What we know:
- By secondary structure, this protein is mostly helical.
- It is built from 14 helices and no strands.
Amino acid sequence: MQRLLFQPLKAVMGSPCLRLLIPGAAPRTQCGCSCGIRRPLRPGQYSTISEVALQPGRGTVSHPSKAAERVVGRWLLVCSGTVAGAVILGGVTRLTESGLSMVDWHLIKEMKPPTSQEEWEAEFQKYQQFPEFKILNHDMTLAEFKFIWYMEYSHRMWGRLVGLAYILPAAYFWRKGWLTRGLKGRVLALCGLVCFQGLLGWYMVKSGLAEKPDSHDIPRVSQYRLAAHLGSALVLYCVSLWTSLSLLLPQHKLPETRQLLRLRRFAHGTAGLVFLTALSGAFVAGLDAGLVYNSFPKMGESWIPEDLFTFSPLLRNVFENPTTVQFDHRILGITSVAAITALYFLSRRIPLPRRTKIAAVTLLALAYTQVGLGISTLLMYVPTPLAATHQSGSLAVLSVALWLMNELRRVPK
């Protein structure tokens, strides 16, 4: 009886076709059928279902390792640093009135600076044909021209370095499979924004090279284009820094209380206010609005100057009246500091991790330092070193505001 029962059962269990249905069973033959005949498998043919699942690209989705994520995070952190350098260098270029010294734009050709006396004189002669030399710098020497030319040249070459820092590693990481699906879209957007920045920079410079016979103002770039150029650079910086922090810093598992939700929303609003304050600085720089009222806290002899709304229509004053532009920048700066102070005291009412508390304290300290730098710059009639430090300080405040936002971000379920 045992022989009658167990021998057929043993034969069935030994069938290669049944082994296809049993994950842990190894086939006794190299065949995909139950005939028991041994024959080699054809290329692309698999003996078990589990072997099909283990093949690359068949039913499985590969995810970058933690080590790869850290490498990508460090790369984006370096990229955000190069963007910060470009913003600071661009601010110094504007403060030294060097931005209109190079009167043409070539992606490759202009990478080689003039070397001989003849080449420098030819470059200087091109500059002499444009309004800035005719109206503002008509007595400029060749040595003085070399200084402003090298300032603009440095800014342009740094911009090309930023482009390479984004595009070349992005192509490598993409090929290696170190970018997730969501990160691929973000990296593509960042690389596109870098290229757009270069074109927008030249579009901005062209506005200062154009002849304006009806204008009695000194030649300068359009404050609208300057704000667009700075704004896109700040977006590039913020997205790069946020992504790098998200990849590098371990996320806190904070309890989702009503107080935390309120703090998170307030942190987002404060960071947006800091961004808007930094962007308003482009209008201050574009209109030389830092030179119209060099007193604080009053503007001249009054709290609200008489020429605040002299332009018509009324909205033009916000973007074209130097007095209004400086007034708005003051109000935005004071409001930002008040918001950061309130954010700090809100954070103290909630039990937060040590790293998050450090971010809140650092943000508060940088905000008051930035106010001191701004007031000093104003009272001392905008000296270049101090004004450049003030501009750099706005990036520092924005960076720490993003860091604090990142610390408070919601843990995905």
